[in-house]
Amino acid sequence: MTQSSSQPNRALLQRLPQVQRERLSHIDFKLFFLGELKRADVADRFGTGPAAATRDIAQYKELAPGNLALDNTDKIYRPTENFLPLFDHAPQRVLTALSRGFGEGIGDELKPMVRCEFPLALSVPKMSVLAPITRAIHRGKAIRMGYTSVESGHNEREIVPTALVNNGMRWHVRAYDRRRKGFRDFVFTRMEDPVLLEGSAIADAEKVDQDAQWNRIIELELVPHPAHPRPEVVMMDYDMPDGVLRVKVRAANAGYMLRRSTIDCSPDHSLSGPEYALWLRDPLALYGANNAQLAPGYKDPNAGPETRPIKAW
Fold this sequence. Notes:
Blueprint: H1 10-13, H2 18-34, H3 39-46, H4 50-63, E1 68-71, E2 76-79, H5 91-100, H6 127-139, E3 142-149, E4 153-166, E5 171-177, E6 182-187, E7 191-197, H7 212-215, E8 217-224, H8 231-237, E9 245-250, H9 254-260, E10 278-280
Antiparallel strand pairs: 1-2, 3-4, 3-7, 4-5, 5-6, 8-9, 8-10
């Protein structure tokens, strides 16, 4: 079977010099994950002139003729509906680049390419699912997709993605859910065939600045668990010479963080076991956080006496 003229020519790509492949990979990355490419993106990233950037884009178009089209309204290249990545982008490198801005600055100047939280552990969503979501975040667009939730099973959703989040076990996207008319967390592995909705206008209520849980910052005071046999070791482990570890976290992510770190959030530090090195000194700090119930031992102060604390699994 012969290769279609619109398919990427990866055989020719492998014969190019490494430095040129790096520039072409950057073009491929911008199109695939951010949904746009400007000539200055190549020139600024690699310190080349505009003419050299133009040649790189032309070569990319020769290798993958069906991948990009010039939007004459703003002189920006965008991926076509038939876009096929020219490179096999390693998932962890992609996630690192999107969340840490790898190669987009020096030292403290590094900034994420899209709004993103970056805990230490990484999960690996499918790139074919991740790419439309990150394009939507970058460009301020809505997404239509199939989604399967524990609560309601499989159905079609329209969402407005605003940020990537890693809760330590998996990546998900923070988004406005047009069905429920509020901001929710959507797990990548439960998404099917996300499609970017070019013509769907974003209402003010759907923008990230209206997400109260995302924008509310909670300060948590963590101390060595009163039942820990060696509190001085805990203080060393968490670099807390004064005995208190103060952590600022978004309300939207507080429950995830406390669960991942196995922190006792019961009001009377009643959870036992070697995994509980820290105790949340004031559980009322979580009041109003929608996912507070994920925190080990947390008890809603408004709940009745029959309510049992929820432990993390």
